[in-house]
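Let us walk through a complete example step by step. Step one is to write down the protein sequence. Step two is to encode the small molecule, pyridoxal-5'-phosphate, as a SMILES string so that its atoms and bonds are unambiguous. Step three, shown after the inputs, is the structure prediction itself.
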Amino acid sequence: MSRETPPAWSKRSLAAQAMGHIDPLTKAVVPPIHLASTYIRDPDNQYSSGYCYGRPDNATVREAEAVLAMLEEAPAGALLFGSGMAAATAVFGALDPGDHVVAPTVMYWALRRWLGQEATRWGLKVDFVATDDLNALRAAVIPGKTKLVWLETPANPLWTITDIAAAAEIAHAAGARLAVDSTAASPVVTRPLALGADVVMHSATKVLNGHSDVIAGVLAGARIDAFWARIQSVRSSQGAILGPFEAYLLLRGLRTLHLRIAAQMAGAAALAERFAAHPYVLAVLYPGLPEHPGHAVAARQMEGGFGTMLSIRVKGGEAAAIGTAARVALWKRATSLGGVESLIEHRASVEGPGTPCPPDLLRLSTGIEDPDDLFADLDAALRGAA
Ligand SMILES: *Cc1c(COP(=O)(O)O)cnc(C)c1O
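Step three: the predicted structure of the complex.
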């Protein structure tokens, strides 16, 4: 059966079936994993299948990329990388020496460190600014010199919100591109490309895969142009493509993305509300709370929820925070986020000197467990129960 126009199935339906692709050889509803590193050349010297070698391209990787491009509604498509860091650094790698870059003061710490220490060695000039303050962002962007504005929203670990549409206007007016690390939002909740971004990046290690068993990163592009081609060339020449087995696991995870994220966001919202009224909690950082400084912008640019992440500041300072994390049982003391199991982390210990993260902060990644159990476990830990 063929159709003139594809039916208007929702993204949730398309993701659940991984775009409905059926293996033509076997009619399998789950695609095979294409492990080959090389492909037969045709007698006429062409590669009619479109594949020639595993470093530039892979069919299993393409399957996962198709779902991600659909979720982001990305005209240029999506590119998968071996990690979120590989995806992010490919964007900066597509710039030229001397280019000026503006990045947020509150952002994923490993990328902030790379921008401060490594990117400058490649000749990039990097300025960090509080991007949630649009006047500060406007002042930091240098017309003609700034080639890229990098945002992260909500941003680790304070869940700072930046207005993507307003930042896109500021960047574009100066002749710069806008890239958004949308890991904490996910494509279910925010679509930066529709808000004016040129490139969106995710650590697919997090909620996209959702099961804490893959390291992966993805970029989705607003248009196929010279910059996108350069990003593609960076991935291919630096060998940063995701492996086929990881792509398969990610494809499997994406099938349940909408269900997982709905449950995780509902849990995060319930926990934020309950911990906001907790006698041992100084503050809850969660964009869904009206008192969060980014709440109004978040309510506008996030759809259906405020993400799966929140942080709490524990009364009693750093020792009380570390002590609380030591006493949990259901929450797992580990880094990373977005998985089905809830994680707790004393973030300042990870980020080290120079971090904007307060020492009394615990970062909470809400999984799919019963929110009542999650509350009771952390409540007991806050109260010092052994
Ligand atoms: C984890 C993370 C990254 C880095 O991704 P990796 O897959 O660990 O390389 C980048 N940005 C954010 C917001 C993250 O949470």
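Step four is interpretation. The mean pLDDT is 96.
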